[in-house]
Hints:
By secondary structure, the protein is an alpha/beta fold. It is built from 10 helices and 8 strands. It has an 8-stranded mixed β-sheet, sandwiched between helices. Helix 3 (127-137) links the parallel strand 3 and strand 4 (140-145). The longest helix has 17 residues, at 337-353. The model is unreliable at 1-18 (pLDDT under 50). Keywords: Hydrolase. This is Alpha/beta hydrolase fold-3 domain-containing protein. InterPro entries: AB_hydrolase_3, AB_hydrolase_fold, GDXG_lipolytic_enzyme. GO terms for molecular function: hydrolase activity.
Amino acid sequence: xxxxxxxxxxxxxxxxxxxxxxxxxxxxxxxxxxxxxxxxxxxxxxxxxxxxxxxxxxxxxxxxxxxxxxxxxxxxxxxxxxxxxxxxxxxxxxxxxxxxxxxxxxxxxxxxxxxxxxxxxxxxxxxxxxxxxxxxxxxxxxxxxxxxxxxxxxxxxxxxxxxxxxxxxxxxxxxxxxxxxxxxxxxxxxxxxxxxxxxxxxxxxxxxxxxxxxxxxxxxxxxxxxxxxxxxxxxxxxxxxxxxxxxxxxxxxxxxxxxxxxxxxxxxxxxxxxxxxxxxxxxxxxxxxxxxxxxxxxxxxxxxxxxxxxxxxxxxxxxxxxxxxxxxxxxxxxxxxxxxxxxxxxxxxxxxxxxx
Length: 356
């Protein structure tokens, strides 16, 4: 045991935090600002999946770090919370509008689905992003607060998200002056998975979408066994190369899989495309997609495989990989250049899709 002198342990240069530090072999590959941020605010703390879910639900702010987000002013934007009926209850959908625009001329629509592994997240997750889109493009934004696992396992988060889409399109167009011929959808991580599923649902129903934004999307939960661990024969190098990356490690993804689908996973969900949209039987005629992946993310390769499958089916796809980016780079747009670039690229894609 190290000798204590004057109440302090001697400094050991190679010492690492007990929990969730970034491995030495991966550290040089991250954007330097992320390393500084992560080591100062996150390394050494329990990650949210390492906290009993009851404790997290009781006090989410205690376990959530929000440093690094570029706060967006609220002037020029109004928002209100609506109640959307879903099977077995209702969920909240928050609508954001330009404060001074008229509903006389139909306005384009962006519908957002937050990330958080189907377990975490809510209306606070993309609050600034929603305001940014309204301020810069003058469209109407809806943010869907679907019910979360493990309390509400699959298919509830997916069904809530689909139901909210139809409810917005079918019942809110006149009230909010929506141009239903200019609807875009999008989300990050689990929100990307939900958006990808809705892209297929809309294609099957003949509902046009002008764009789907899939940021660091989960597209293939088939990589995990029914008991939870990853399959040895999975096809994605990023899971092998980045198993110990942060903040989304292989261990964390295995945990999300169990919370979302149950442990063991029911046999009938093994190849369910509404769980793993990359397994969908038909990729033809999907809406144009902007797919964004992060260099240092375990989900990198499945997101890019999804883009490739869309391209092979003749769909329009823009694929962008952000060098040195962690999984959560979009939410660190105050400190990471890749986070700022995400805002620029996503807004430009929406502007083009909306023909503004």
